[in-house]
Amino acid sequence: MxxxxxxxxxxxxxxWRLSMLVILPVLVLFVGTLQVFSRHDLWxxxxxxxxxxxxxxxxxxxxxxxxxxxxxQTTLALTLLLSCAAFLTVKLALLAAVVHxxxxxxxxLIETMVWLPTLFLWRLVADTPRSMINVLNALLAGVATLSGxxxxxxxxxxEPLQPDVIRALLHLNLSAAVxxxxxxxxxxxxxxxxxxxGEQNALRALSSTDLLTGLPGRTRLQEDLRxxxxxxxxxxxxxxxxxxxxxxxxxxxxxxxxxxLLCILxxxxxxxxxxxxxxxxxxxxxxxxxxxxxxPEQADWTGQALLHEAAIEPSAQVGVETTLSIGLTLYxxxxxxxxxxxxxxxxxxxxxxxxxxxxxxxxxxxxDALTERSQLLARELGGALPRQELTLVFQPVYRLADHRIxxxxxxxxxxxxxxxxxxxxxxIPVAERSGLITPIGTWVLNExxxxxxxxxxxxxxxxxxxxxxxxxEFRATVQAALTRSxxxxxxxxxxxxxxxxxxxxxxxxxxxxxxREMGVQISIDDFGSGYxxxxxxxxxxxxxxxxxxxxxxxxxxxxxxxxxxxxxxxxTGIARNLGADVTAEGIETPAHLSAVRTLRCQxxxxxxxxxxxxxxxxxxxxxxxxxxxxxxPQPGRxxx
Length: 640
Prior knowledge:
By secondary structure, the chain is α/β, with parallel strands linked by helices. The protein is 58% helix and 14% strand. It is built from 23 helices and 14 strands. The protein starts with 12 loop residues before the first helix and ends in a 17-residue tail after the last helix.
């Protein structure tokens, strides 16, 4: 049978075939040379010559079958093994039956000893199925049996044992046994290493290939981008493709329908992108298309084709309209760094999502810098807690009647090793959008309660995001922080930013009431900057109101002072009626201090009174407070 393709048993058939075409003639030459230089005694003429001719014929036939590809590698290897095994078995059987003289028997056994290890070593170069192993094991058993016959034959004839024959038989069997054992160990180790390499290759393939769509994954994309952005590389375009509303497909039609949509979309992206393009699946419903050697116009044309045509077939298959959003960036025009290219495409895609989806948008540096900054902060903020980059500082809150510190607001600070100090106004919104505000807020709550134990006369204030407040487990989180630290609930004040959800959400109001029942104080922060629903204050279990710094600033502004004064008086009146205190934020000048004192605000906070400080500095500041109420400060001087 003519062999036309590699079989599973022959991973390198051409290499094996060429080796056999060289090795078999060498064996033929070796056998012929032995016959030429034989002793020409009775054994050589009567038995060795036909045996060698038989072996030469078999070797020549196997060589011809190998040259003509008449059989598979496994078949040829097994035929060669059986031929050599038959040759050796017949020779040993004839030696046992015919030869009695040690002078003839010993040299022939030595010749046989040369063949046996060679035969066993054949396992190292041949694809060895179980049938080969059985043949070799049977051959070893046959050698041992015939050796016993040769050894016992003189005793049966009444002749003494010949030491030379015994040594030759021992060498023959020992050589065969050791060689077979060592080759077996080698093969087992080879198989183990092969299995490990196979597993490693499989894992490597899994890590670089998406199992659902069969497309290359993120690992392959990064490898290809590094290769394609080497100096002197040709230009290319990168399209970041996202399926709009994919979660809805999974939620309404089920995950099998979502998987079907993604598989069909992958094929459509490959078809529409062209033969030179490469499509990757990043994760979920996100794909990347690389278009090598295209101009900006060609990239835009391909992107528009994907936008309007790629989702048609997937939509028809799953029975729901599917649309795409695409971000586009160009190499080397937009960047020559692979990671930056991905970020640029992601920024362009994010801008499409914000603008209503179903569009193709190219990256614009001046427009997308803010988006990339936000994405960078989101990535880095995720590791800020494990890297211990977050710290707390404390800003004192003064009782204006006697200028004593009665509260301290815990303020979060983030110092990044390369970005430096990041403003809370910048990273807190990022934490809220990314969902990181919950673990970060829990950490702040625990750290603030622990730190407050050093200041037994102070209330510690902790800012709480509306996102945290909407968590079902928030009450339990607060309780756990108090229990863990041992801080009395009355010494913890939660500051809630004025938001619509605070005023309208029934679950939020329920959580606030539960916190007040625990004894925790509740304060509305930045009041007056947003909705300022004064009537809603009476339904909330608050213990304090903090006027926004903008109101404090307006109190000394002739154009806005009248309204700011009226609002402050209204808030202080309502708060007094509710038994709540009022804190004026943003006190930075003597005029601010005088204005809020005139309007009878109980508490004050601001850079003009004290800057935020670390725990040890606050402790020192508290030790410096006078034992008795201080005199009213002179005009033009604030408390420091």
